[in-house]
Structure formats: C-alpha cells, structure tokens
Amino acid sequence: MEASVFDSAYNKLISQEDLSVDEPPRHSNQEKQQVSLSMVGPASTWDPKRVLEITLAVLAAVLLAVDIGLGVYYNHLTDEPRKVESINRELATLHKTYNAASQRRHESQKRLAEETRQQQITKWQLEHQTIRSKDYKKQADKIQLDIAVLKSHLPMLNEGCRRCSPGWTLINSACYFFSFSDRYSRRSWQEARQFCNKHGSDLVVVDTSEKQMIINQLINHHQDPSMSITQSGFWIGLRDVEEEGVWRWLKGTRLIEGYWNDGEPNNSGNENCAATYPRDNPFKGWNDAPCSYNLKWICEMPAN
Ligand code: MAN
Ligand code: CA
C-alpha cells in the first residue's frame, strides 16, 4: 500500500521530467539531482522495493531462526526432567556399584590382613620347628653315640657278669665298685675302706694313667651337678698319714706318679687322705682332704 503510493509518486516525477524537454525547466539540474538522491538514490543499487523485500526476507528468516531456536530450547527444557531422572538412575546405579566395590575392597583388605597374619604365624612355626629339629638331631646324635658306647661295653658287661659281683664293673681284669648310687651315703676315708674290706676288696690303687683316665671318665659321667665340687670327690687308697708329704698306697708302696690338681696336695688343715674328683683334665683329678670328710669312694679287687 505504502509502496504503491511511493511508486506512483516516483513515476509521476519521471514522466514530468520526460515531458519537460521542450519546456523551460521548472527545477535546476542541481535541484533535480537533490531530489533523485534524497528520494530514491541511484536506480541500479538502491531499489527500495528490493531493499524492502530483502529486509522483510531477512526479518522472516531471523524470526524463523528464533522460532526454531525457541522450539529446540523448549524441547530441551521439556526433555530436562527425563534427563535428570535418567542421570539420577545412572547415579544410583553408580552408587550401588561403588558401594559394592568398596565392600569388596574392604573384605579383600580384611582377607589380606588375615593372610599376612597367618603367614607370619607360619614363619614363626617354621622357625620354631627348625630349632626343634636341630635339637632333635643333637639328641639323636647323642643317643647314637651312647648306643655305640654301650654296645662297646656289652662284651665287657657280659664278661663282668661272669667275673665280678653284681654292681661291680670289670675293667682290665679287675672289679671296681663306685658308690654312685644314693643307697650309699658319703662317709669318711676309714668307713669307706671298711665297706670295701667287707666286700673282699680295698680302696682303689690308681697306679697307671690308664686307670686314672677310666676312673675319671666314669666319675665325670656320673657327676651330680647339684653337688659342690668339694663333696664330689671319691676316696682312693692313698694317704700320707705316717709321714707328712710322703704319699703311700695301702700296701705301703710309695706314690710315683700323682694326678694332683694344681696346688695340691696342700695339706690345708691336716689333709692326709687322697680323693679323686670329676674334672675335664683327668691328670688334675686329685686333692688331699681331711680323712674325716664324708665323700663317695671306689673299691677294687681282682676279677675271678
Ligand atoms: C679346697 C682346697 C683343697 C682342700 C679342700 C677341702 O678344695 O682348698 O686344697 O683340700 O678345699 O675341702
Ligand atoms: Ca688339699
């Protein structure tokens, strides 16, 4: 409507211009130019109709785009609660999965701790058993050795039974009595000698180092650890009762080779009788002690 008014005005203007070729111009050239510039511009580039059309088209396009955008946005908005719901569900599932995994992790940790403890106990057990088996081995070795020693004594024992009284030990063709048993209480040198005499023997005469070594071995083996060393001696048939420092065997033979401990005999307080004691070194077994002392003793007699 507006455009057609505008068009008719414009056409009128043009036709007036065409008609006035032979007439004197009603406007100057400058005025004419001003009109054409201010009203329509150059005809080729500024076609108002086109401009309007384009403007309207652009406007329509913009509106359409806005409409589509709004539509999409609206859709998006109406979609939102469903999305939130689905996210919530996913979140819940994830929560569940996480909780289950946490639980499993916790249980695994507990199992691991228990396993570690069991391993430690097994390790200690192994250590303990290793020590025990070492002890057993030591004991077994000792038993083996004892068996070997006892076996080596068997012929001697058999023969001893034939040639010595019960409770007496055969050593190199002589029978020996050691008062190891608790049945025989300690006694003085004189009382000990009386015991031997009563059994057809006398206190032992240790006139060879072999004899001393065997006696030493036997008394070491029977040593009572609860007994003090001074009480652990065994009277032998040796005295210096007639002449101090002159040691004689029972039948009066003088001592040639003694197996005295370091510093002995020292006659500390009238010590006229000799005894042999359990010692590592068999050649340092003897001591002189008061004859009234109560000690164990060793008797000797020829074998049958
Ligand atoms: C210690 C030492 C010996 C002594 C005894 C007496 O062992 O002095 O010389 O004969 O005691 O019991
Ligand atoms: Ca002494």
Report what the structure shows.
The chain is of the alpha+beta class and 304 residues long. It has two domains: 106 residues; 139 residues, Mannose-Binding Protein A, Chain A (Roll). It has five helices and eight strands. Strands 1, 2, 3, 4, 5, 6, 7 and 8 form an eight-stranded mixed β-sheet that branches. Bound molecules: alpha-D-mannopyranose and calcium ion. Calcium ion (CA) binds next to strand 7.
Task: Considering the chains and any ligands shown, give keywords for the structure.
304 residues, alpha+beta, Mannose-Binding Protein A, Chain A, eight-stranded mixed beta sheet, binds calcium ion
Offer a quick outline of the entry:
By secondary structure, the protein is α+β, with helices and mostly antiparallel strands.
Let me know the largest β-sheet. Answer: 8 strands, mixed
Name the CATH superfamily assignment of the largest domain.
Mannose-Binding Protein A, subunit A
The helicity comes to 55-70%
Bound molecules: alpha-D-mannopyranose, calcium ion
CATH fold annotation of the largest domain: Mannose-Binding Protein A, Chain A
Could you tell me the number of beta strands?
8
- What's the number of domains? 2
Low-confidence stretches: 1-43
Strands, helices and their partners?
Elements: H1 2-19, H2 29-39, H3 48-163, E1 169-171, E2 174-178, H4 189-198, E3 202-203, H5 209-221, E4 234-239, E5 248-249, E6 273-276, E7 286-289, E8 296-302
The structure holds alpha-D-mannopyranose and calcium ion.
Residues 264-266, 268, 271, 287-289 line the site of calcium ion.
